[in-house]
Amino acid sequence: MTRWRIDPDHSVAAFSVRHLMIANVRGQFNKINGTISFDQTEPAHSAIDIVIDIDSITTGIRKRDDHLLSPDFLEAAKYPQMMFRSTSTEAVGGSRLKVTGDLTIHGITKPVVMVAEYSGPVKSPFGGEITMGFSGSFSINRGDFGITWNEPMEGGGLMIGKEVDITIDIEADLIE
Predict the structure, then answer these.
(1) What is the pTM for the complete model shown?
(2) What do you get for the CA distance between the two ends of the chain, in Å?
(3) Phi, psi at 157, each rounded to 5°
């Protein structure tokens, strides 16, 4: 079993949600921390603990980011972090994993299943650190986390989709 510290300079949690029923809006959170305990020969012994700072959100539009941080959506002043803590990990072939865990957003915790893949480890050419990559994705219904703000569209439908696709890309440095 090796332990890895998430490198916040090379990790991101990205999301995509339907807007106006016609296009996807994308954004990301740029402040991710946490640890990964990884057993490449026995993935079931592995564990992932991720903390994401809500106020690190960026969609490229400051006005939209401010709205997403408001009580209409993520309510960052009250719920400053989003967390994922794995409860089980299972190898599904090659370097692919099925990671089940508890996701906490907006003060509500729900189980999710992440399809993930690991890469490495590799030695950095800039100082000899040993680094490993992890990438995982899953979808949530934002309403399950109490994020329900929306506006009706003329002719039917809602301004913002309920389903949010999330991808987490991590580089992690060897601790031990």
Answers:
(1) 0.92
(2) 9
(3) 85, 180
Contact 13, 33 (CB under 8 A): no
Name the phi and psi angles at 155, rounded to 5. 90, 0
What whole-number percentage of the chain has pLDDT above 90? Answer: 81
The phi, psi pair for 74, rounded to 5°, reads -85, -15
Residues paired with residue 98 on neighbouring β-strands, in sequence order: 90, 115
Per-residue model confidence as pLDDT tens digits over 93-132: 889 999 999 999 999 999 999 999 999 899 988 777 899 9
- Residues with Cβ < 8 Å from 53, sequence gap 6 or more? 29, 31, 32, 80, 81
Listed as own residue / partner, the contacts of 75-78 with beta carbons closer than 8 Å and 24 or more positions apart are 75/106, 78/107
Q: Do residues 82 and 54 make contact, with C-beta atoms less than 8 angstroms apart?
A: yes
Q: Which residues pair with 170 in a beta bridge?
A: 134
The CA distance from 62 to 71, in Å, is 16
Q: Is the pLDDT of residue 171 over 80?
A: yes
Task: Please name which of 9, 61, 3 lies closest in space to residue 171, comparing C-alpha atoms.
Answer: 9
